[in-house]
Amino acid sequence: MRCILRSDARFQILKYHAWTTVFLRLHAKHRVYDGSVWFFYSGARSAMARNLTVMVVDDDPHFADMVSQMLMEQGYNTVVCATFEAALDFFSRSRIHIIVTDIFMPGMGGIEGIQRLKADFPGCKIIAMTGGWGGMPAADAVLAAKKIDADGALQKPFTVTDIQNVLEALPDI
Predict the structure, then answer these.
(1) pLDDT above 50 (res 110)
(2) What is the pTM of this model?
């Protein structure tokens, strides 16, 4: 499995084994990597962010990094996971306020992951995102996620304003 960390204009590819517990701190600006999860710490704070941490779950590392950057520009701290399995493991032992997850991923997909999170942690806020899959349009996938209690939904591609509007509409943050 590979995780990609963008540092300035160059990409560093790090290989790791799922069975190995690795804790590696990368002091490239404000990023920390712990074997399966990227941590991104924002310096700026907006009134909405209030020192909140958002977990981004997406199997596309470039898209996950882009969403993370969008959120950091709004003042959120972000954690990026490439699989929902890693996200569930990390979520159970951390303080995450909001999860932004892709719906269609290898392994446990976003639909099953949303159901498990809502069952185990009913108060968590989840935003589902998708570009569709196969013959299923993104709009149908977003409706399915909303039916299983996703608190918000985004169709890929989306803008900073789109994600900002969904975050502001979340209840009780």
Answers:
(1) yes
(2) 0.74
Query: Coil, strand, or helix at residue 117?
Result: helix
Residue 1 lies in a domain: no
Does residue 148 lie in a domain region?
yes
Task: To the nearest 10°, report the CA torsion of 37, 113, 122, 130.
Answer: 90
Write b or e for each residue in 127-137: b if 16 or more Cβ atoms lie within 10 A of its Cβ, otherwise e: bbbbbbeeeee
Distance CA 109, CA 163 (A): 21
pLDDT at 77 over 60: yes
Confidence of residue 93 (pLDDT cuts 50, 70, 90): confident
Residue 9 in domain: no
> Inter-axis angle of helices 61-73 and 160-169, to 10 degrees?
70
- Domain with 150, as residue range(s), is 44-169
Confidence check: pLDDT of 74 > 70:
yes
Could you give the CA distance from residue 87 to residue 32 in angstroms, rounded to a whole number?
16
Counted domains in the chain: 1
Residue 12 lies in a domain: no
CATH assignment at residue 76:
3.40.50.2300
